[in-house]
Structure formats: C-alpha cells, structure tokens
Description:
This is Phosphoglycerate mutase. It comes from Chromobacterium sphagni. InterPro entries: His_Pase_superF_clade-1, His_PPase_superfam, PGM_Phosphatase. Pfam families: His_Phos_1. This protein is α/β, with parallel strands linked by helices. It has one domain (4-195): Rossmann fold, CATH 3.40.50.1240. The protein is built from seven helices and six strands, in the order βαβαβαααβααββ. It has helices at 30-46, 58-71, 94-100, 104-110, 121-138, 150-161, 165-170, and strands spanning 4-10, 51-54, 74-77, 143-148, 178-183, 190-195. A six-stranded mixed sheet has the order 3-2-4-1-5-6, with helices on both faces.
Amino acid sequence: MNPYTLTLLRHGEIDHDGRLIGLTDLPLTEHGQQQLARSWQRISSLAPVTAIASSPLQRCREFAVRQALSGSLALKVDPRFAEIDFGDWDGQPLAELEHQHPDWRQQLADGGFTPPGGESYEQFRTRVLAGLSEWMTTARGSHRLLVTHGGVITVLMAELLGTDFSVAKLMTVQRGGFVQLSMLEDHPAYLLRLESSCVD
C-alpha cells in the first residue's frame, strides 16, 4: 500500500454555553463555519483531498457533505466517528461537573469511570478504531480527511502515534483546527503538522 496523508479536522465553534457536549446535536455558529472554511482552504492548498469521512452530527456532517458535493468526493458518514456518549451528563454545565467530580476526565481516560448512562472510554475507543479501520479499507487516494470531534481525534492520535491518551491530549486540536499524519500500512504514523484555525 502506498503512503497517504490522514487529516483529522475538528468541527468549528458551537454555542455550547459552558455545557458538556457529546452527542447533543448542535449546529456550528457562523464563526465555526468560517473556521472550517478557512481550514479547508489551508488543507486543500497542502494537497487535494481525495476522500472524506464524517461524524453524523450536524456540526461535522453539514460541512463534510458540502465539500464532498463541491469536489465530487467519496463521502462516508459513520456514527462511529461521533463524540463520546456522556449519557446523563450530556448538556450539563461543565462548572458543576468539575466541582462535583474534579478528576472525571482523567478517570474516564484511565478506564476507571463511565458517565452514568454513557459509554466507557474503552467502548468509545473500540468503536472509533473500528470505524477508522473499515474506512481505510475502502477509502482511496493519497489524502483522506475525517471531520470529527476533539475526543475522537485524541483517541486516534494516541493509537496511531503509539502513545497514551493523556499524552495525546496535550496535543489538543482546537475547534476548527486540524492535525495531519503520514500513514503507511504496518508502520507507525508520524506527525506532519498540527494547526489551529486561522480565524480569530
């Protein structure tokens, strides 16, 4: 298999109002749309995109559909690329959750905690990796782009770069930003670039 570039593009800003957002289906703000449009220009200038996949949530899907149609690109919308299911916590004020459970993020990543009614980190990781593996067997071309969420990107970076989730988390992709990896089957990925959105 020839090497290819995998670009992980995080959706732009949403009006989360200080709440924890997982599967809650919020649209992009106008600013978020501008962020993705500018990042797309930058990504396309580096190399033409040959295939697109997306989370089904509208903050990712609507942009992916638009770019796929305009570029006549193959598009895969897969629920396995959705953000982690926070269950009963989805939509709750982050400040309250941080006060009541100050270490919940680390405990979730360590596998010792599952949000009530939600999915464990291992369940999340397993579905994301299964989705990527299946898409990679059908996607074509040298530049494949996934429009998805912060949690999904961190899981993939940890797996593909062979590091811990806590280390991958330090390489945060801001909303509207992207990370690019060079991929070759049976070889470790390596980091090409990590860029924030250039829209203020």
